[in-house]
């Protein structure tokens, strides 16, 4: 009796912290698709089933877009309200944030549009006055208290309910998309806790953003919704196509940049990205952006807080400061990666890692105490970027726009370059202090046990540096118009330099230096600003920052964190340039014990169970006999265990002395012998093999391009050894003079 004619539940699935077999998964999907297509010709019902199967992918994208757009809107609105809660509350309705509270007020003037009787600071509520030193101390104390409360709630929820909800999530998503399995990382608990704690973490005023975690949230939505569709629930490779599209939807709602989201998924996170996934990613990103636009979280019909529109032309000479910003971005990126990885390694290897709650509270307390006195650190980082990107208009009341003779407009209504007033000089000092605080505190914040994104803090660092340089250039052009570099294109009373544009270029440069994104970064920034004419400055800054950062260290922040955590991620961008052979890497080595193999027709159930209990290997080669070592196929440990357990329950007479056959036909048995167990159906009859003299650069390429778990090594058809993905990663680490034991997982 061949009990395997019916599929066994669990066969073909994977254990936690294992790598999927891409080749097997794709093959199974092709078989499933072929079967549905053949059946569709037999009846109308089968045809309907075939059409619904083809349409299910698009329906899934629609649901992912709707869910991630809705959650992003909820996060934006909640974070905006809770950030303002640190400074005061609206008596007209506690659910209004500061801006919405004063919108409804009848006692508000245009110049002081952020002051209205309905909005009360904590000092007004507690001691009934907003003037004097005591009122300042009360507001200061309440600000720090709320920040600590939000941070404590965030880290406690993560620690108790969903440890996987911490951090940015992008390094783990890159690893999962490359075929690794981390059960629970994209589960429903992680989604719920990440959504709640992301709001709390952003509201606490820590130097972090919500953009990276929104990619994790969108991927959780994608993974959970996959369970509604058989096609994606039962196939790990198909599920990863969906997660690639979900990542695009996440960036789409984070920045209001659907095309940038698709390119981000393609350039930064995806491992396998067929054309079909490109279209579906585009659709998911479109639906997500449309959903967020319908919710309108900021009340201004924009998808992000720092959307700007410039139309002032830039001049060729300005490429010099733009490239300088690119160099600054590359230097900051390389410095940040080195220091942050060193700090995270210290956290992992010392007692510090055992006290995540205390660490978060200490960093929050330091951030809040240093942030409150400076208005640019007190406001949320998104508002700060919005202020820095802003080009000064006639009606701006910001200190950054406090120029002298500011209403002396030139023809055309544009404001000319003019001398900086007291407010601008004061703002420059405050921004310089803000820059130092952001640079230092972000190093210690990223990687703590709370949801923390890196996009916004990196952009803030670059935007501050860019605004400082922009104002410097503007004043230089005003006071030294006779210089050759200015007089050819900048006439008296004209608006020559746009400081907001410098902030935007600086933001792109710093983000590029940290993440090493190029194409997707430029498209995201262009979608944010709607300024097609600024693509060249953005490209110049992004490329310069990447070159400078790459010269100082090859890895972006996400790849560095993947390596720090020891995830089995085979980087597709790096070349393998060493002249080693397959026989140098395969197991067993010369002095090692022989390779553990199964024979096709001479082992009993007991023999196989003994091998399983005495080893920890993920699978076993099957050979004709131990003497010949001729290869038949490869069988996975998990499939073996499940099949033997199932046979003992369902097949009469299977005992420890029953012989296991991996052949197509078992020979006739003498009477009174226990029935045999036929397991040919779980045997992979076409395992990938290379010869012992195959160069390792070809082996590495095969592993990358086909997503293999293991590859068998033969010599003249005889089995010699096995190379696993872990062996390849260890060998690459060894060749790069790194610790090969840093690769933790199978």
Automatic annotation (TrEMBL):
Question: What is the membrane topology noted in the UniProt record heading this document?
Answer: Multi-pass membrane protein
> Which is a Pfam family this sequence falls into?
CBS
Keywords, ordered alphabetically? Antiport, ATP-binding, CBS domain, Cell membrane, Chloride, Endosome, Golgi apparatus, Ion transport, Membrane, Nucleotide-binding, Repeat, Transmembrane, Transmembrane helix, Transport, Ubl conjugation
Q: What is this protein called?
A: Chloride channel protein
Which source organism does the UniProt entry give? Answer: Cebus imitator (Panamanian white-faced capuchin)
Q: Write down the InterPro entries for this protein, in alphabetical order.
A: CBS_dom, CBS_dom_sf, Cl-channel_core, Cl_channel-5, ClC
Domain CBS as annotated: residue spans: 586-650, 682-742
Family in the record: Belongs to the chloride channel (TC 2.A.49) family. ClC-5/CLCN5 subfamily.
Role summary: Proton-coupled chloride transporter. Functions as antiport system and exchanges chloride ions against protons. Important for normal acidification of the endosome lumen. May play an important role in renal tubular function. The CLC channel family contains both chloride channels and proton-coupled anion transporters that exchange chloride or another anion for protons. The absence of conserved gating glutamate residues is typical for family members that function as channels.
Reaction(s) catalyzed by this protein? 2 chloride(in) + H(+)(out) = 2 chloride(out) + H(+)(in)
What subunit structure does UniProt give?
Interacts with NEDD4 and NEDD4L.
């Amino acid at each position: 009796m061949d009990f395997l004619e019916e599929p066994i539940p669990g066969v073909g699935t994977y254990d936690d912290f294992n790598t999927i077999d891409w080749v097997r998964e794709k093959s199974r999907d092709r078989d499933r698709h072929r079967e549905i297509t053949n059946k569709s010709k037999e009846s109308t019902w089968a045809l309907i089933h075939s059409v619904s199967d083809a349409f299910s992918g698009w329906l899934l994208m629609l649901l992912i877009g709707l869910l991630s757009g809705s959650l992003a809107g909820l996060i934006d609105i909640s974070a905006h309200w809770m950030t303002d809660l640190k400074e005061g509350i609206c008596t007209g309705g506690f659910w209004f944030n500061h801006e919405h509270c004063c919108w409804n007020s009848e006692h508000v003037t245009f110049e002081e549009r952020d002051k209205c009787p309905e909005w009360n600071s904590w000092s007004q509520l507690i001691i009934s006055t907003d003037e004097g030193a005591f009122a300042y101390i009360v507001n200061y104390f309440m600000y720090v208290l709320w920040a600590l409360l939000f941070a404590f709630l965030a880290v406690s929820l993560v620690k108790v309910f969903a440890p996987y909800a911490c951090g940015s999530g992008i390094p783990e998503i890159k690893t999962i998309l490359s075929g690794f399995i981390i059960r629970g990382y994209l589960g429903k608990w992680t989604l719920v806790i990440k959504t709640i704690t992301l709001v709390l973490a952003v509201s606490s005023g820590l130097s972090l953003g919500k953009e990276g975690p929104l990619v994790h949230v969108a991927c959780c939505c994608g993974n959970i919704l996959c369970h509604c569709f058989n096609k994606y629930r039962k196939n790990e490779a198909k599920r990863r196509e969906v997660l690639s599209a979900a990542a695009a939807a996440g960036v789409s709602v984070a920045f209001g940049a659907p095309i940038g989201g698709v390119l981000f998924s393609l350039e930064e996170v995806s491992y396998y990205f067929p054309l079909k996934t490109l279209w579906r990613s585009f659709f998911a990103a479109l639906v997500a952006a449309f959903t967020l636009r319908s919710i309108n979280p900021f009340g201004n019909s924009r998808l992000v807080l720092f959307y700007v529109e410039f139309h002032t032309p830039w001049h060729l000479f300005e490429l010099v400061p733009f490239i300088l910003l690119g160099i600054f971005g590359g230097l900051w990126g390389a410095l940040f990666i080195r220091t942050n990885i060193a700090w995270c390694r210290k956290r992992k290897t010392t007692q510090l890692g055992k006290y995540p709650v205390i660490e978060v509270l200490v960093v929050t307390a330091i951030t809040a105490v240093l942030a409150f006195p400076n208005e640019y650190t007190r406001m949320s980082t998104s508002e700060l970027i919005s202020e820095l990107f802003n080009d000064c208009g006639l009606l701006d009341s910001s200190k950054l726009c406090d120029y002298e003779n500011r209403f002396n407009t030139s023809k055309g209504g544009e404001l000319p370059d003019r001398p900086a007033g007291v407010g601008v000089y004061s703002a420059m000092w405050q921004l310089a202090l803000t820059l130092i605080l952001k640079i230092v505190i972000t190093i210690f914040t990223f990687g703590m046990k709370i949801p923390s994104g890196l996009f916004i803090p990196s952009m803030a660092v670059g935007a501050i540096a860019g605004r400082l340089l922009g104002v410097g250039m503007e004043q230089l052009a005003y006071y030294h118009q006779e210089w050759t570099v200015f007089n050819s294109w900048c006439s008296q009373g004209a608006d020559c330099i746009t400081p907001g544009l410098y902030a935007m270029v600086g933001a792109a440069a710093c983000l590029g230096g940290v993440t090493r994104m190029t194409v997707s970064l430029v498209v995201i920034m262009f979608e944010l600003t709607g300024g097609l004419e600024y693509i060249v400055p953005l490209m110049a800054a992004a490329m310069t920052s990447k070159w400078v950062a790459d010269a100082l260290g090859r890895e972006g922040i996400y790849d560095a964190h993947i390596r720090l955590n020891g995830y089995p991620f085979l980087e597709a961008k790096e070349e393998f340039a060493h002249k080693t052979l397959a026989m140098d890497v395969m197991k067993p080595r010369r002095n090692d014990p022989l390779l553990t193999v199964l024979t096709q027709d001479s082992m009993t159930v007991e023999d196989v169970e003994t091998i399983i209990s005495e080893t920890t290997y993920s699978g076993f080669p099957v050979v004709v006999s131990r003497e010949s070592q001729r290869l038949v196929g490869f069988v996975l440990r998990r499939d073996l265990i499940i099949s033997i357990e199932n046979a003992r329950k369902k097949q009469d007479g299977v005992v420890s002395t029953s012989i296991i056959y991996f052949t197509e036909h078992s020979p006739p048995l003498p009477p009174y012998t226990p029935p045999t167990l036929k397991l040919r159906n779980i045997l992979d009859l076409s395992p990938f093999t290379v010869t012992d003299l195959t160069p390792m650069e070809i082996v590495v390429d095969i592993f990358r391009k086909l997503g293999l778990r293991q590859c068998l090594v033969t010599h003249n058809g005889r089995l010699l050894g096995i190379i696993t993905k872990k062996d390849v990663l260890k060998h690459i680490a060894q060749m790069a003079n790194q610790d090969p034991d840093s690769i933790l997982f199978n």
